[in-house]
Amino acid sequence: MATSPRLDAKIPQGPLETKWSKYRSSVPLVNPANKRNLEVIVVGTGLAGASAAATLAELGYKVKAFCFQDSPRRAHSIAAQGGINAAKNYQNDGDSVYRLFYDTVKGGDYRSREANVHRLAEVSGNIIDQCVAQGVPFAREYGGLLSNRSFGGVQVQRTFYAAGQTGQQLLLGAYSGLQRQVGMGTIQMYNRHEMLDIVNIDGKCRGIIARNLITGELERHAGHAVLLCTGGYGNVFYLSTNAMGSNVTAAWKAHRRGAFFANPCFTQIHPTCIPVSGDHQSKLTLMSESLRNDGRIWVPKKKDDNRPANAIPEEERDYYLERRYPAFGNLVPRDIASRAAKERCDAGYGVGSSKLAVYLDYSAAFRRYGLGEANKNNITNPSEEDIIAWGKAVVKEKYGNLFDMYKQITGEDPYEVPMRIYPAVHYTMGGLWVDYNLMTTVPGLYSLGEANFSDHGANRLGASALMQGLADGYFVIPYTIGSYLANEIRTGKIATDHPEFAKVEAESKARIEKLMSIQGNTSPEMFHRRLGKIMWDKCGMARNAKGLTEAISEIRALREEFWKDVRVMGKVDEFNPELDKANRVADFIELGELMCIDALNRNESCGGHFREEYQSEEGEALRDDENYRYVAAWQYQGVEKWELHQEDLIYDNIKIAQRSYK
User: Fold this and answer.
1) What is the pTM assigned to this prediction?
2) What is the pLDDT of residues 599-617, one digit of tens each?
3) Is residue 593 part of a domain?
4) Which of 53, 427, 467, 606 could disulfide-link 268, Cβ–Cβ 3.0 to 4.6 Å?
5) 581: domain range?
6) 527 shares its domain with 393
7) CA–CA distances in Å: residue 356 to residues 230, 323, 349, 423
8) Phi then psi for 648, rounded to 5 degrees?
């Protein structure tokens, strides 16, 4: 293998431990007077976007920030529940920057870039300090120290949390910083605006075309650099844990304008979701991975056992994760826990009416915590009822909002009966290819957070999404963007009357007019559902060459049908969610094809990419490091055409081995 000459990761020289510190000390700087003349566009205002916009504005740059929601507070980052990782070692249980780095690379099945992951681990502690200073209400121990809990794929407690609403609290912290700069006039905020395309001039990204979602008007916005912080593409599967509005349009339009798309087949299936209940559903609900910290996962030992969970005695329960992976038990990484649940259900041991669910049981935790409370209060010979009641009170304090949410959705009380869970599409490790500076293959175009591919390999460890988003926005991009903008101080203000702006705007307008003019018989929603079924059935938790080949043909046929038969209601020059949906679905269809092509090309199993042809005798993922230890970066060459570029992954600081959590 050899890295494509088109891919220069720009990784600094020197030992891994000093790459980032030396880089920060030597990177070109922009003086404060010049920063005031440089304009930066930030698309997306979740954790990555809000933190980047606030920090860059604080530094003195002129910033324009865009979100398609009515407020940045509605970014999908609020849905992250369980926590955020950081190598603080508060528990004194052996954690360190290196161990966080190692766990992340191993958890990603050795398909992530060493330098980026180590930098992420290095700045993780700074993130917690920053957020505490902002007033984020992290949970605390009795003595005042911040509390930690465990997450999958690790053997230490390094996950900081705010009950079951960590993402929301972190976003409010970033949002406060963003709004402070809006109030000071250093950020222009554009709510209800969606980016439809990027504008490249003389080989550099110089702006975007955005649509005002209220009026339908197309707008030109220019800048010296553009940051895409637009999240992941999990909604390509239709049913996922993502917010309904989450989409791939910004990243996909950048891809079509020259930004390579990396590892699109690396999507994460989260093991702890409320099972599908019927065709009426348009999204799925995540139950935080933090619940696996105290809950035990099991299925009946007898096939098709229809007894209520509480009627099945202990000796007739199969705690299959504890049985198969004794060293990590219920805290194996997400991809392994998800496949194990699927295997049990496929074998006939599933529970619930659909038989596509397993139990997540807290009865042991109630008793353990209850006994702890009895000892703490010096109560001897407590009744079993009191023990359980005290234990439930402790669990309520730690996970209460998650338990309440489960009850509201399912009608079942998880304090009385075990939860039923099943895997669902959650996070996407693939995304726009970026170098060490977070710049795409288009100069001046950056990608942050889940929108890029850089840190998680083939499987993201739980509680690392918030860590990456805030690391990119608060601590990485403020340095790395300077190395580019230092050469832009003589450029002057970018004019939006440039012919390229007019050309791209006309193309965006023509696409909208085409969508409106078809007036077929099928709604965008129905096309989305059909695409999602193809993707889940043939490029979901398990893939094989036959299914992927069929999926590519089916998606191509679906795309042709879409452009002949889609029906978009309403008008162009008004608030029209149907038009927004149609535009996003068209991009999802094209992305779905590339995902299947990427999955078909990668003849190995690793992390969230499980090819059925490549597995061990025990059903574990079987990597092919000799032939596939690379980042697959795809260059758009036209309809149904992509060229593959490879970035070879070199591991100088970690010994590559088949993952084992046994």
Assistant:
1) 0.96
2) 999 999 999 999 999 999 9
3) yes
4) 427
5) 497-624
6) no
7) 32, 20, 9, 9
8) -65, 135
